[in-house]
Amino acid sequence: MSRARIPAPLIALAAAGLLLFLLPLAGLIARAPWDQVGQALIAPETATALGLSLFCSLTATAVALVLGIPLALLLARTSGTLRAILRAFTTLPMVLPPVVGGVALLLAFGRRGLVGGPLYDAFGLQVPFTTAAAIIAETFVAMPFLVIAVEGGLRALDQRYEEAARVLGARSWRVFFRVTVPLLRPAIFSGAVLCWARALGEFGATITFAGNLPGRTQTIPLAVYVALETRPEGAIALSLILSMIGSFLAFNQFYILTQGGPGTSTTTIVMWIYERAFVELHLGAATTLSLVLVVVVGLISALQFFLLREKD
Fold first, then answer.
1. Which end of the chain is more exposed for a tag (fewer CB within 10 A), N or C?
2. Does any domain span residue 256?
3. Model pLDDT for residues 79-107, shown as the tens digit of each residue
4. Does residue 12 lie in a domain region?
């Protein structure tokens, strides 16, 4: 049986789309000062940012594994409206602008936040602008990738193996650890890799919630932004690392390349929120628009899963 031929106009459009992905990477590789890359990578500030990024991203992945696998199991074993609602909340960080996520985390865990306020009053614990805040921000934006991957593996799993183990007298915990988890290893591994890559490249939520403190919260993407102004070769070297993994969302690119200029020609809603909150210190306006975006994205997610449920 011969394959269906793709029309030439569609091939041309596909090629244009492919170029959109390849040209930035080609420009990065072509303009990289390869003779200075090694020196830039071993610079103290680069090594510090790299080490902190690895620590935070790996810790965030570990937290995501502990929390995400049970959440994926809950999503896979529920049905109807409850599943649609749970999936909408779970995938919200995937479509939510990272800066809005950072503002939300700040309002939840800040000194006056829903959780952070009582923690600070009772124990004097301050979460924002700490290494723990960077880990929380990375977990928030990256865990959905793990959950979705593991949920897909659970749905494709043949449940007869679990039923056979229960018939033989195995308890729920033993079935989960001795039967379910081994069968899910490929899905868990792929989800963990996606989660780690997303955590390693996180910029918006981290700089909003954890700040940009060298040796404390300055991860690789934040170091790239700083190095662009002082050590361009270091920025290119770090960018080469990140480009191999896949990082930088729209906010990162706009903010690093344009900072909203010239004028306000490239100021997106997300950048406007960041500037109101952390440049002009108008947290009220930033919070209001963040809430509006959360509601809009949540409604879109709910509509999407409602339509998918109708098809099922």
1. N
2. yes
3. 778 888 888 888 888 878 788 888 888 88
4. no
Considering the domain boundaries, does residue 105 fall inside one?
yes
Sign of CA dihedral 185, 186, 187, 191: positive
pTM to 2 decimal places = 0.70
Among the residue ranges 158-162, 174-178, 230-234, 250-254, the one predicted with the least confidence is: 250-254
- Tell me how many domains the chain contains: 1
CB atoms within 10 A of CB 132: 17
306 in a domain, yes or no? Answer: no
Burial 135-172 (b: 16+ CB within 10 A, else e): bbbbbbbbbbbbbbbbbebbeebeeeebeebeeeebee
* Lookup result for tokens 């004097």: 124
- CA 24 remoteness from chain centre: 21
* Rounded Cα distance, 87 and 81, in Å: 10
Q: List all residues 6 or more positions away from 111 whose beta carbon is below 8 Å from its beta carbon.
A: 117, 120, 126, 128
Q: 108: closest CA among 12, 7, 209, 14?
A: 209
Domain that holds residue 176: 35-301
